[in-house]
Amino acid sequence: MSDSSESLTATLLGALQGSISVLLTALAGYLTARFGLLDRNSIKKISNVSSLLFLPCLIVVEMGPQLTVKDISKLWIMPVWGAFSSLVAHLAGWAGMAALKLPAWTVVASGRANANALPLLLLQSLESTGVLKSLSGEGESPSETLDRAKSIVLLNSIVQQMVTFCLGPVLFKIDKDRKSAGQDDDPEGLRPGRGPSVYPTVQDREHVGLLHDYDGDYGGDDYTEPLHQLENVPNMDIHSRLPPGLSHAIKVASKPVKKIASFFNPPLIGGIVALILGITPPLHEAFLSKDGIFYNTITEAVSNLGDLFVVLQMYVLGAQLAIVKSANPGAKPTLFVLFIRYIMMPAASLAFVLFTAGRGWYTNDPLVWFLLILVPCGPSAMLLMNLAELMNIDQGPVAGMLTVSYLISPLIAIVCTLGLQVVDKVQQRS
């Protein structure tokens, strides 16, 4: 890499082109939905199959080869930084909520970046424009660098999901309690998930494992209940048919099981499968080695399915914004969230890599350094829409903020450019 102004301009242009291509992908989904080619049910079905099938497949084929015992010892910094940076952003959002009297959803919006769609598609664009080549390892082709980058991003996204679903529902409940304490805008007494649905985008079906969806007809009701409330569904109360002692024992034993199950979702399951395949030599050889007996059949099929996820996710994201009736979130909440996502977190990530990388504290890999800068930055995750639906709060302001956040997403090109300059400086120092 060069420090010349010509190199800097080329890097900025390449990153800008990549970020604009991401925005145009979302725009295609937006226009498709606006012109009526996709309706709510279609978007929901695409979201479901993408999150339940395509994303776990992508995680298995991209993370598996990188999750050997040797590689895990090098990549530990990524999930640690992912969790820590997310907590820092949430705390900043909490401070803003308390000081500026902002709605509680701004805390989640501040704390959770788009950990899947934007980084993955942006990396593809950076590879096609040649920007990613500067981060390739010795003897590594740009396509191999891209595959390795995807695996690192996906590792971080799994951690981000766990943080969000520990904190998100608690924070959104604050807005729900505020609404209840004020005036009741829900005359029909709709429970979370039973009102008019705003179906989540692909990334934001991350709640799978927390909810259980019933698409069949149960007396006209569309059941979307927490797992621990399945007894409310007709014909599901089996405990009343058992002896009292056995029924009580089952209920007691089921509590920890349900608690553990609530943390499981398709991406996490995909990560567990990838870990098992990666650290088990016979399985690694059979499924992940190009000479493996299952590589050209099962692994290739899984890879084809996983490839559908990256572009489709941003496409559905745009369609999701088109069908949600946006409302003005207010200048103060919007500007505060944008400040956290586009200024504070990029500054924190750049400073973290600048002062810690290349000192032997963690891996001396320029690609990892760059991704440590990239993944905590950028627009908020569409997961906010899902949480708003789950907690039965007004989704309009959330959708309005997200629309603005994604419209200015090409600003991530500046973060990419500064990130590459920081990585270059660290390389020269180490």
TrEMBL record:
Superkingdom of the organism of origin: Eukaryota
Any one cellular-component term (Gene Ontology): membrane
Membrane-topology descriptor: Multi-pass membrane protein
InterPro entries named among the record's database cross-references: Mem_transp_PIN-like
Classification via Pfam families: Mem_trans
Keyword Transcription regulation listed: no
Keyword set includes Phosphoprotein: no
Keywords: Membrane, Transmembrane, Transmembrane helix
Biological process per Gene Ontology, one example term: transmembrane transport
Transmembrane segment boundaries: 12-33, 45-64, 76-100, 260-281, 335-355, 367-387, 399-423
Protein's name according to its UniProt entry: Auxin efflux carrier
